[in-house]
Amino acid sequence: MSEIVSIRRLVDAASLDGPAWLRIEDGKVVERGEGEPVSPASQILDVVVPGAIDTHVHGAVGIDLATPGIDPQPALDHHHATGSTTLIASLATGSLDETRNRLKELAPLVREGRLAGLHLEGPWLSPLRRGAHNPALLREPNRADVADLLVAAEGAVKMVTIAPELPGAFEAIEELLSSGVVVAIGHTDADTETVRRAVDAGAQVTTHLFNGMAPMHHRKAGPVGVSLSDDRITVELIADGEHVSNEVLDVARRAATGRMVLVSDAMSATGLGDGEYDLAGSKVIVANGVATLAEGNSLAGSTTALIPAALRLLNRNVPLPEVVAVTSATAANVFGLSGHSLRPGDPADLIELHFPDGVAEVARVARRGVWLD
Questions:
Q1: Residues acting as catalytic residues
Q2: Domains of the chain and CATH, by start
Q3: 365, 83 in Cβ contact below 8 A?
Q4: What is the spatial distance between Cα 333 and Cα 340, in angstroms, rounded to a whole number?
Q5: What's the confidence (pLDDT) of residue 296?
Q6: pLDDT tens digits, one per residue of 182-231
Q7: Fewer CB atoms near the end CB (10 Å): N or C, the chain?
Q8: Cα–Cα distance between 193 and 212 in angstroms, integer?
Q9: Which residues contact 38 (CB under 8 A, 6 or more apart)?
Q10: What 3-state DSSP class applies to 123?
C-alpha cells in the first residue's frame, strides 16, 4: 500500500524545515519532496518530526526490562505510543547470571529490529555514586566478565556505563571498544584526570550528566566539567523537570551544542500511578510522579517518557530543530543508527505535533508507517 502525506512543516534536524510531502510504502519513506505534492495527498499533517530515539530506558507499565523471563513488549509499546519509536533497552545492575540470561533473551529482539540495542548500566559502577543500583550487586570490572556478557548478547550490546576509577576499568574499556561498544562514563566518583584518561582511551558518552556524579567545583571540574568542555563527549540529559533544573539544562544546551541527547531513564512505573515499585532489586516509591528509593536518599529513574519531557523544552521556546536534534539526530549519529531523518529508505517513524493556544502537544505517532493508538 502506498500513500502520499502532505506536511505543512517537516523538521528533520538535518536539511529541511518547511512544507514537504512524503510517499510512504510498506512502512518506509520511498520518496520525499519539498512544497506541495504533485499527486493528491491521502492526508494533510500539521508539524511533523522524526520519531524519537531513546537510548536509555529501563521499562514502563510495570515491566523492568532487566528482569529475566518477562515479555518486554508492553513496555516497548508504551514508549512507541508516546513517540520513542526507536529504543535501546537499559539493564540496571543485576547479578552476572541474571544479566547474562536477560541479554540472551533480548538479543533476538535486536536482531528482529524491535530494539536498536542494549545498554548495560552496571554492575561496574561506583558504590559512592550508585543512585538506585543495588550496592550488593556492584562489582569491579574485569576483562573476562565483560567478554562473557558481550558473548551472551551476540553483538546486541550498544553501550556500557562504567565508573573509570574502579580497578580494572581501563582494561574493561579496552575490551568494550575492541568489540565496537560505546563506552559511557557514569555513576562515578572519578576525579578530573581519571575522566580525561577515560575520554582519551575512547569513552564517548556521559550517562545522565549531573546525576550519579559529583557536582562541578570551580577548581575540580570532575565528570561534569570534562563532559561540558570536551567536544569528544556526547552528554545524556534527563529533562523530566526533576533530575535537572531548567537553568542547568540551559547551561548544558549551550556548552554541549550538537552533542547532547535527551533520554528518559524511564523505569517500570512509567505509564502507571503513584505506588511502590522495584528497580533491579531496590524498592522504589513513586509519589506525585517522582521516583525515589524507599530510603529517600536518591532519585530512582524517571516516570516520564522522552517526548513528553522534550515538550517541556518546546514550551520553553527552545527551537524545534534543536529539540529534534536532541531527541533523534544526535543519538543516531553516536550509535550509528541509519534511517532516522524521514528520507527515502528510512522507516516511516514520525510524530505529528499540534500547538493549541501555543502549547506543544503530540497529536499522533506513526511507527513503520502505522498510526499508533
A1: 265
A2: 2-49+340-371 (2.30.40.10), 52-335 (3.20.20.140)
A3: yes
A4: 10
A5: 67
A6: 999 999 999 999 999 999 999 999 999 999 999 999 999 999 999 999 99
A7: C
A8: 18
A9: none
A10: coil
